C-alpha cells in the first residue's frame, strides 16, 4: 500500500511540475503545452498529455489550471493517472521574497492506476531519466536539502486508485477519495490532514464491487530534510471501530525506522462484522452480522498495540485484546524476506480464560415438540456440512514455502457454550515448507485429547500425517452436542493414525489411509437398533425367537473396535465392533457428494467362552447375519440399517438343513447298526441334496 500511495504522490508531483512550468512562462499557456509536457518527461520520465485548455490567472493570486490531463509510462500501454482539472495558486509576493507559498492546490476526479503485470513488474517502473553526460554535485543546494514549500490549502476530491496484481490475480480499489489539508509543509511544522475513502473489493464469483467506507484524521509533522515524519492524534475510523494512536518515522533519507502505538477503545464487534460483511452478504444470502446479532449478547472488543519496525523487520512488542471478560496477550516478530531467506514469523498468544459462548449457536429448547424440530434442523445442518465437504477446494500449500513460522498458543481455560477445555497449548512450526502442529494434552470432558499434524509442502501432493489420542473422554458430557453419541455412555479411549495427500480437500478425502482403534469402559449402551434388526430377523425364523426379552440398555464388560481406511473414504472402509458376545464386521464407504453412506455388515452373536450378555439360542451361535446399512445422513438413526432379507432366508434354510442333518446323524448313530451306518448316511445325503 505504501508503494501505491507513493506512486499517487508521484502523479500529483508530476502535475505540480507542469503547473510550475506553466506559471514561469507567464504568457498564453496554450502555446506552450509541449514545453510543459517536455519538462515533466525530463524531470520524472513519465509522459504528460494535456488534452484540454490551460488557464492562467494573475489576480488576485498567480494561478494556472490544466484541464483533461493524463499521465503515462512510455513503456506501458495503460494510463497511470488522469484528472479532469488541476489548479495551482501561488502567492506572488512570497515567491519574490524567495519563499514558495502555494495558496491552493485543487484537483477533481483524480484517478491512479497501479497495475503489476503477470511478470511482477509495475507499470510505474521507468528507466533512469538522468542523462549520462550530466553529473550531480553533492555540494549543490539540491543535495543539501529539499526545497521548502508550504501548501496553504490542499483539496483533492472524488479521487480514486485502482490496484491490480495480475501475477497474483488480486484487485481492489480506493474510491470516493477526498483529502483536505491546510498549511501543509515539509519543515516540521504540524499540520492537519483529513481523508475519507471507500475501500472496494470485488467478488470472485460475481465480480460485483463490495464497498467499505473508511476515514482518517491526523496531525502530521514532516521534516523531510531531517528524514522525520511524526503522525500525532491518529484517528482511523471503520464503523463502529475507531483506532487512535501515534506513529513516528525516522531515517527517511538513509535507514528508515518506525515506532508507534495504536489502541481501540471498546466497540461493538457485531457492528464491525456487519460493516465488513454486509455488502458481501447481499449477494450470497448470508449475513454474518445478522448471525452475530441473533446471539444473546456479543461482547465488546478493545485492544492496544505497540510496534516498531525497519526495512528488515516488524515487531509487535505488546498486544493486548479484551473481549468481554476475556483477555488475550501476545507479541510477534516478522522478519522480511531476503534474497536468501523467506519471511520469518514468530509469535506467542496467551489467555487465562477465553469465553467463546457468545459466538456460538444458542442452546436449543429441550421441550418435546421443539426438540423434534431442532433434531430435524440439526440433522439438516449435518447433511449440509457433509455435502459442502464434497466440494474439492485447493489448499494453499504454496504458502508453506513463502515464510517460516514458529509460535505457540496457550489458553488456561476455554468455554464454548457448555464445552470446557483446559490447559490448551498448541505449537506451530513451519520450516523449509514443512508444517508441524503439535497439540499438547488438553483437559476436556473429564479426559484428555492430544495429537499432531504434519504437512510436507515440498511435494505437489503435500503428504500429510495425522495422529490423535483420546483418553477417558466422558461420553455423557459429550452426548448433548453430538447427537449420534446419545445412545452410548462411558469413558472413551481412542487412538488414530492417518496419512493423506493434502493438496486439496478432495485429495484428502480420496487418499486418507490409516486406522482408528477405540474402547469404551464403564459403558451403557442403548441396543434399540440391534433389537430392531434381530426382531426383524426372528420374524423370518420358523421357530421365532426371544428377542423381545432383551433389555433396552446393557452394560458390556468389553466394548471396542476399529475403523480401517485404505486410500480414501469413498470405498473399502473396514469396520469392527465387539460388545461381549455381539460382534459386527463389515465393509463400506461414505459418499460426501450425496451426503450418504453404504455399508454391508455382518451381525453375529458368539457362543462361549464369550460372556453371554445378549442371550441367544445355541443354534444361532456364530451365525453371520447379513445387514445393509445404507441411508442419508439426514435420515433417522432407526432407518440406518435393515437385514438383507434374501440372505437371512438363505441362512435359515441352511440352518434348518443343518439341524435336520444333526438330528438324523444322531438317529443313525444311536439306532442303526454300526456296519450299516455308512450306507444310511449315504442314502440320507442323496435325499437331502
Describe this structure in words.
The protein is elongated. A hairpin with a 6-residue loop joins β3 and β4 (79-90). Among the domains are: 1-125 and 146-185; 435-649, no CATH class; 657-688, no CATH class. The relative contact order is 0.04. By secondary structure, it is an alpha+beta fold. The chain is built from 12 helices and 32 strands. α1 runs antiparallel to α2. The protein has a 32-stranded mixed β-sheet that branches.
Considering the chains and any ligands shown, give keywords for the structure:
12 helices; alpha+beta; disordered N terminus; 46% strand; 689 residues; 32-stranded mixed β-sheet
Topology of this structure?
Elements: H1 2-25, H2 33-44, E1 47-50, E2 54-57, E3 62-72, E4 79-90, H3 92-96, E5 100-108, E6 111-116, H4 141-144, E7 149-165, E8 170-185, E9 191-202, E10 209-223, E11 228-238, E12 241-250, E13 257-267, H5 269-284, H6 288-293, E14 301-310, E15 313-323, E16 326-335, E17 343-351, E18 354-355, H7 368-389, E19 403-416, E20 419-431, E21 434-444, E22 447-456, E23 463-474, H8 475-478, E24 488-501, H9 505-511, E25 513-526, H10 528-539, E26 553-554, E27 559-565, E28 573-579, E29 582-591, E30 596-605, E31 625-632, E32 641-643, H11 645-671, H12 677-688
Parallel strand pairs: 5-7, 6-7, 17-19, 18-19
Antiparallel strand pairs: 1-3, 2-3, 3-4, 4-5, 4-6, 7-8, 8-9, 9-10, 10-11, 11-12, 12-13, 13-14, 14-15, 15-16, 16-17, 19-20, 20-21, 21-22, 22-23, 23-24, 24-25, 25-26, 25-27, 27-28, 28-29, 29-30, 30-31, 31-32
Helix pairs in contact: 1-2, 11-12
Amino acid at each position: 500500500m505504501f508503494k501505491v500511495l507513493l506512486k499517487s504522490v508521484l502523479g500529483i508531483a508530476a502535475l505540480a511540475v507542469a503547473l510550475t512550468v506553466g506559471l514561469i512562462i507567464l504568457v498564453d499557456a496554450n502555446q506552450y503545452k509541449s514545453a510543459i509536457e517536455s519538462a515533466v518527461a525530463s524531470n520524472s520520465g513519465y509522459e504528460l498529455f494535456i488534452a484540454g485548455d490551460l488557464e492562467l490567472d494573475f489576480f488576485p493570486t498567480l494561478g494556472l489550471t490544466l484541464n483533461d490531463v493524463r499521465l503515462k509510462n512510455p513503456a506501458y500501454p495503460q494510463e497511470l493517472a488522469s484528472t479532469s482539472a488541476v489548479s495551482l495558486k501561488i502567492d506572488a509576493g512570497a515567491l519574490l521574497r524567495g519563499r514558495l507559498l502555494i495558496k491552493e492546490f485543487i484537483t477533481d476526479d483524480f484517478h491512479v492506476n497501479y497495475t503489476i503485470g503477470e511478470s511482477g513488474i509495475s507499470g510505474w517502473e521507468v528507466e533512469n531519466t538522468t542523462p549520462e553526460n550530466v553529473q550531480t554535485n553533492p555540494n549543490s543546494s539540491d543535495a543539501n536539502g529539499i526545497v521548502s514549500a508550504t501548501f496553504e490549502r490542499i483539496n483533492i476530491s472524488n479521487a480514486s486508485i485502482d490496484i491490480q496484481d495480475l501475477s497474483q490475480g488480486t484487485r481492489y480499489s480506493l474510491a470516493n477519495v477526498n483529502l483536505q489539508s491546510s498549511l501543509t509543509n515539509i519543515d516540521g511544522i504540524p499540520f492537519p490532514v483529513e481523508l475519507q475513502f471507500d475501500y472496494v473489493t470485488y467478488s470472485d464469483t460475481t465480480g460485483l464491487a463490495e464497498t467499505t467506507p473508511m476515514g482518517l484524521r491526523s496531525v502530521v509533522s514532516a521534516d523531510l530534510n531531517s528524514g522525520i515524519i511524526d503522525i500525532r492524534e491518529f484517528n482511523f475510523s471503520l464503523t463502529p471501530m475507531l483506532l487512535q494512536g501515534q506513529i513516528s518515522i525516522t531515517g527517511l533519507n538513509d535507514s528508515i525506522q518506525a515506532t508507534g502505538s495504536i489502541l481501540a477503545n471498546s466497540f461493538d464487534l457485531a457492528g464491525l462484522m456487519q460493516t465488513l460483511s454486509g455488502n458481501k452478504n447481499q449477494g450470497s444470502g448470508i449475513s454474518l452480522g445478522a448471525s452475530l446479532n441473533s446471539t444473546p449478547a456479543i461482547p465488546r472488543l478493545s485492544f492496544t498495540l505497540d510496534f516498531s519496525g525497519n526495512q528488515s523487520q516488524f515487531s509487535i512488542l505488546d498486544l493486548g485484546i479484551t473481549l468481554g471478560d476475556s483477555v488475550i496477550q501476545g507479541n510477534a516478530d516478522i522478519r522480511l524476506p531476503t534474497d536468501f531467506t523467506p519471511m520469518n514469523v514468530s509469535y506467542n498468544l496467551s489467555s487465562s480464560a477465553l469465553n467463546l459462548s457468545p459466538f456460538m449457536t444458542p442452546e436449543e429448547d429441550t421441550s418435546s415438540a421443539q426438540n423434534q424440530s431442532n433434531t430435524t434442523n440439526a440433522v439438516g445442518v449435518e447433511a449440509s456440512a457433509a455435502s459442502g465437504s464434497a466440494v474439492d477446494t485447493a489448499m494453499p500449500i504454496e504458502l508453506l514455502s513463502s515464510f517460516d513460522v514458529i509460535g505457540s498458543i496457550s489458553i488456561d481455560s476455554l468455554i464454548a457454550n457448555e464445552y470446557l477445555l483446559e490447559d490448551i497449548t498448541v505449537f506451530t512450526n513451519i520450516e523449509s515448507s514443512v508444517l508441524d502442529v503439535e497439540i499438547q494434552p488438553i483437559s476436556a470432558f473429564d479426559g484428555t485429547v492430544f495429537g499432531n499434524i504434519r504437512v510436507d509442502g515440498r511435494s505437489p501432493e503435500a503428504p500429510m500425517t495425522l495422529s490423535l489420542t483420546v483418553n477417558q473422554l466422558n461420553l455423557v458430557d459429550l452426548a448433548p452436542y453430538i447427537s449420534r453419541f446419545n445412545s452410548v455412555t462411558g469413558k472413551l479411549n481412542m487412538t488414530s493414525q492417518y496419512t493423506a495427500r493434502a493438496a486439496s480437500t478432495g485429495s484428502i478425502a480420496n487418499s486418507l489411509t490409516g486406522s482408528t482403534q477405540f474402547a469404551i469402559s464403564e459403558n451403557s449402551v442403548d441396543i434399540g437398533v440391534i433389537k430392531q434388526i434381530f426382531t426383524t430377523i426372528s420374524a423370518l425364523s420358523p421357530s421365532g425367537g426371544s428377542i423381545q426379552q432383551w433389555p433396552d440398555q446393557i452394560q458390556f464388560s468389553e466394548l471396542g473396535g476399529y475403523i480401517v481406511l485404505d486410500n480414501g473414504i469413498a470405498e473399502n472402509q473396514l469396520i469392527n465392533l465387539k460388545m461381549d458376545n455381539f460382534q459386527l464386521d463389515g465393509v463400506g464407504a461414505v459418499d460426501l457428494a450425496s451426503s450418504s453412506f453404504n455399508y454391508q455388515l455382518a451381525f453375529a452373536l458368539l457362543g462361549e467362552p464369550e460372556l453371554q450378555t445378549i442371550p441367544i439360542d445355541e443354534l444361532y451361535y456364530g451365525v453371520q447375519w447379513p445387514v445393509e446399512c445404507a441411508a442419508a445422513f439426514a435420515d433417522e438413526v432407526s432407518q440406518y440399517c435393515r437385514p438383507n432379507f434374501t440372505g437371512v432366508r438363505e441362512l435359515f434354510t441352511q440352518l434348518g438343513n443343518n439341524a435336520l442333518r444333526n438330528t438324523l446323524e444322531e438317529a443313525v448313530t444311536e439306532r442303526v447298526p454300526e456296519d450299516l451306518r455308512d450306507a444310511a448316511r449315504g442314502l440320507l445325503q442323496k435325499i437331502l441334496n
